[in-house]
Amino acid sequence: MRLNKSHGPKTQRTWWSPKRASILLVQAGLLTTSAISTPSVLADWSAFRGDGSASAAVGPATLKVEESGNLAWKTDMPGRSVASPIVFGDLVITTSSAGPDGGHLYITAVDLNSGDVRWEQSFRATGRPFCHPTSANAAPTPVSDGKRVVAFFSSNDLACLSIEGDLLWYRGLGHDHPKAGNDVGMAASPVIAENAVIVQVECKGDSFAAGIHLADGTTLWEQQRNRDSNWASPLPITRSDGSTEVVMPSGQDVVAVDPRTGDVRWKLDEGRATVSSPSLSGSYLMLPGNDLLVMRTDQSGTAPKEVWRNNRFSPRNATVASNGQALYALKGSVLIAGTMADGERKWQHRLPDFGGGWATPVVAADRIYVFDQAGNGAIIADRDDRAETVAQVELGEPVLASPALADGKLIVRSDRSLYCFQ
Q1: Does residue 42 surpass a pLDDT of 50?
Q2: Would you call the peptide bond into 142 cis, given omega within 30 degrees of 0 as the criterion?
């Protein structure tokens, strides 16, 4: 077990601060911060909530930080974050922001097995970095296609790096949209679909969505969005004919667009949640709101069909998770389980010593991993007709980011540290 590891071994840190250019293109190989080999295995948890379900096949059986426990390592980070880590191959990628205004931006790659820092890139925000003290400029979760890493920040700075940590391109989207933001901070995570990076930026000012070419950072399309605050993240889904759509929720409606053109494929004239995000479990699309709306996506060419809706499973802040058979919704300190197919409630479980929070639960088989804002974590076992708390841990520092599951390990990003339980 490795505890309180310093932020290293240190790599050369390069600061980037494009002042007026809205796009910066860099040839791969010129800005290497450290030499590593390309992982042979593609991403296990490549985006916010992994594949959209917040589930994996295997996870740790307990959470213990003692010397004899299962905490493999803990590594200090260069700044704060409420963004989830992602994992591909043997790398964990996380973002951070630091400085008096949160304008120092970091993208850090950590070895999944040792916790050592493999590479790091640093930037200076080009947009407005200010956020609510609870949040951070590093709020959106990064995303990867296994070859590249794309990181987005509340300041609307968008960076694309190679898997080796080389800067490929950089966009300061705030140059084109100076009024895109709010005093709380932006949080919608980017997604990758059909070689396009989709960003959804919605506020009471300059709201927009855009498709950015993954290869070179140029704009493929852009559209105006509803002028209202929205922190929910878009979600890519694949239809039965193999086509890909990106679902973008808002408080006024839900639209699905072609990731390459931005053309609207279908629209739901019904507002949904603006904090918790859509999630996916097989062919089931879950749209939180005043109730949880579940739709089937296995038809092509038409809008998904409603299967059921139930207000029991409407989460407050966290997104609904599912292992395929069951779904799990967190309401404050209460975890509620239901059957995916028909929305029947299975059980309701009050979490012990749990203060509520923002992190989405993650699921491995019949185990649900939850963390509150104070850093109290628990493993809840689904016994079909009841729930059982089988492990608890106190990290002693805030946790707002949703954990990641990969290779049987649980990766937890706290305010200023990264933990790995195995």
Answers
A1: no
A2: no
According to DSSP, residue 132 is labeled -
Is 174 in a helix, a strand, or coil?
A: helix
Under 8 Å between Cβ of 180 and 201: yes
- CATH for 2-421, among 3.40.50.10890, 2.130.10.10, 3.30.70.3270, 3.40.50.2300? 2.130.10.10
Q: Which of 174, 157, 160, 150 is nearest to 25 (CA)?
A: 160
Per-residue pLDDT of 265-313, as tens digits, reads: 999 999 999 999 999 999 999 999 999 999 999 877 688 999 999 999 9
Cross-strand partners of 24 = 170
Contact 49, 143 (CB under 8 A): no
Nearest one of 11, 8, 19, 212 to 121, comparing CA atoms: 11
pLDDT tens track for 399-419: 999 999 999 999 999 999 999
What is the spatial distance between Cα 392 and Cα 71, in angstroms, rounded to a whole number?
13
Q: Which residues pair with 15 in a beta bridge?
A: 122
Domain boundaries, the chain: 2-421
CA separation for the pair 32, 30 (Å, rounded): 6
Taking phi over 0 as left and psi of -120 to 50 as alpha, with beta for the rest, 257 belongs to beta
Token pair, residue 77, equals 């980070």
Beta strands 2-5 and 254-257, pairing class: unpaired
Rounded to whole angstroms, how far apart are CA atoms 153 and 232?
14
Strands 244-249 and 254-257: antiparallel
319: left (phi over 0), alpha (psi -120 to 50) or beta: beta
φ, ψ (nearest 5 deg) of residue 192: -115, 130
* Closest residue by Cα to residue 340 from 364, 365, 313, 316: 313
Cβ count within 10 A of residue 262: 18
Pairing between β-strand 117-124 and β-strand 15-16 as defined by DSSP bridges: parallel
Q: Which residues contact 240 (CB under 8 A, 6 or more apart)?
A: 297, 298, 299, 300
Task: State both tokens at 400.
Answer: 């707002």
CB 127 within 8 A of CB 181: yes
- Measure the CA–CA gap between 331 and 315, rounded to whole angstroms: 5
C-alpha dist (Å) from residue 32 to 15, 93, 307? 13, 16, 49
